[in-house]
Design a protein that fits this description.
Length: 264
């Protein structure tokens, strides 16, 4: 299994505030759509339904998730199955243009989804694949509990996402063997912590990518089920508030994570 995120370490907590910066558009720029690109769509639906309770039968506008076959051209280039997160923005072309100015790479043209919303996929300036999608209402239930960016340059990655989208640094979890620690963030100053960015792509076997964690009620049982169905798991990481994160690969090789709340 390719390591998809950090593993458990002894940590200390530190806090640092970040000045407010404007985002692209006058909305809360956050991940609103999560798209799984799979080799076998039916098997993927069944796996995530059983392991994480994801319902792909609902309209993506309501569920926030959908699954597509991995395109033949992508497979020919060696792209593995993966989850793609799409950030909601007011103006897709403006967001794409700014990302390109910062060193991103466009991965295909801007297209429109079945709901009519324009979206584009890019490789961000640090190498992680990310989408931007025309502003949309939030889903009825947020399917992802935690968002982690594995990167090789924490400071540059943070500058890109914070300055372009207005994200707010909430706290830092220090780790002796992880330069810069785990920088946690909220979508804006008024929100709760929703994810982290760290130099975890410097660790052996970790590539630069966004990793999305789905909430489960019983982490140990869910991890056992992942393994029983042919997936792979890593040991959970414990956050300062007691929440736990467990990186996984599904049976087709797509990286994802499972999240367990300390209050569950």
């Amino acid at each position: 299994m390719e390591h998809t995120a950090f593993e458990g370490r002894n940590v200390q907590i530190g806090y640092q505030k970040l000045a407010s910066t404007p985002g692209v558009g006058e909305i809360r720029t956050m991940f609103r759509r999560y798209v799984l690109r799979a080799l076998d769509v039916d098997e993927a639906r069944a796996f995530y339904r059983e392991v994480a309770g994801l319902d792909f039968s609902a309209a993506p506008e309501k569920s926030g998730i959908e699954v597509w076959p991995l395109h033949e051209q992508a497979r020919a280039r060696g792209a593995p199955p993966h989850w793609l997160g799409q950030l909601a923005v007011v103006d897709v072309e403006a967001a794409v243009g700014r990302l390109l100015e910062l060193g991103a790479e466009r991965l295909g043209p801007t297209v429109r989804g079945r709901d009519g919303a324009a979206f584009a996929t890019l490789r961000d300036p640090l190498g992680a694949v990310v989408g931007v999608r025309e502003s949309m209402p939030p889903p009825e239930r947020t399917p992802v509990a935690w968002h982690h960016l594995n990167t090789r340059d924490l400071e540059r990655a943070w500058t890109v996402y914070a300055e372009l989208f207005g994200w707010h640094h909430t706290e830092t979890m220090e780790a002796a063997d992880l330069e810069g620690g785990l920088r946690m963030f909220a979508w804006d100053r008024s929100g709760e912590t929703v994810g982290s960015i760290a130099n975890t792509a410097r660790l052996p076997g970790v590539h630069t990518h966004w990793l999305f964690y789905f909430p489960v009620a019983d982490l140990e049982a869910s991890l056992a089920l992942v393994r029983a169905k042919g997936g792979k798991t890593l040991a959970p990481v414990v956050l300062p508030n007691g929440n736990r994160l467990a990186p996984c690969d599904d049976p087709q090789g797509a990286a994802f994570g499972l999240f367990s709340s300390a209050q569950s």
